[in-house]
Write a structure and sequence with these properties.
9 strands, Immunoglobulin-like, five-stranded antiparallel sheet, 20% helix, four-stranded antiparallel sheet, 2 domains
């Protein structure tokens, strides 16, 4: 009986070893299947950024914070946004700029303003709207919206909220940073809302 058990176990191990062939697959359909699956991954449609004074260049001491959420339309021709801010005074403009983190870059789309300086405290939705290719300015003027979406997807764009109390000199503290009080690098948030 033992002899049968040992020989039966050897046969079983031989079958398992043969089934666990460790050589790389040569069937090209396997690689094609992976490629097809990768092509089915939806493109980025949602983007977000958390805005703080620490992200500004140079950094600013401020209690102001913000968040921007952007969503690309299914046909890729519109980028809807909502910009929320709190604990911030005298907002007079907000934009999307193109540049990597730690670098100041040119404005490519307006989000808010300009309005008169010295507007007081802002808490809640600062702005919402839609950006199309026709709204692009600066280095993206005349370009398709897909160029902005590419910058958003690669971390090459940021949102910036500018403040100004309307009293000279500028840059005297929170509520008076015309070059930008809070900033956030825009990143991909996913393919679906």
């Amino acid at each position: 009986m033992r002899r049968f058990t040992v020989s039966g176990a050897l046969v079983l191990l031989s079958c398992v070893a043969a089934a666990c062939d460790r050589t790389p697959p040569t069937d090209p359909r396997g690689a094609l299947g992976l490629r097809v699956a990768a092509e089915r991954v939806p493109a980025a449609k949602n983007f977000v950024a958390h805005l703080t004074g620490a992200n500004e260049v140079p950094a600013h001491e401020t209690r102001g914070v913000g968040q921007i959420k952007l969503q690309l339309s299914d046909d890729g021709t519109e980028l809807r946004y909502r910009l929320i801010s709190s604990n911030i005074d005298n907002v007079f403009m907000a934009h999307i700029h193109v540049a990597p983190a730690g670098v100041n870059g040119p404005i490519v789309a307006f989000l808010f303003g300009p309005v008169a300086p010295g507007g007081g405290r802002t808490d809640g939705v600062l702005a919402h709207g839609t950006i199309t290719a026709a709204n692009l300015i600066g280095p993206l003027a005349g370009h398709p919206l897909s160029d902005l979406v590419a910058a958003l997807s690669d971390g090459g764009a940021y949102a910036n909220v500018h403040t100004n109390d309307g009293v000279p000199p500028t840059n005297t503290g929170p509520g008076d940073f015309p070059g930008g009080e809070i900033r956030g690098q825009i990143r991909v948030a996913g393919p679906t809302p």
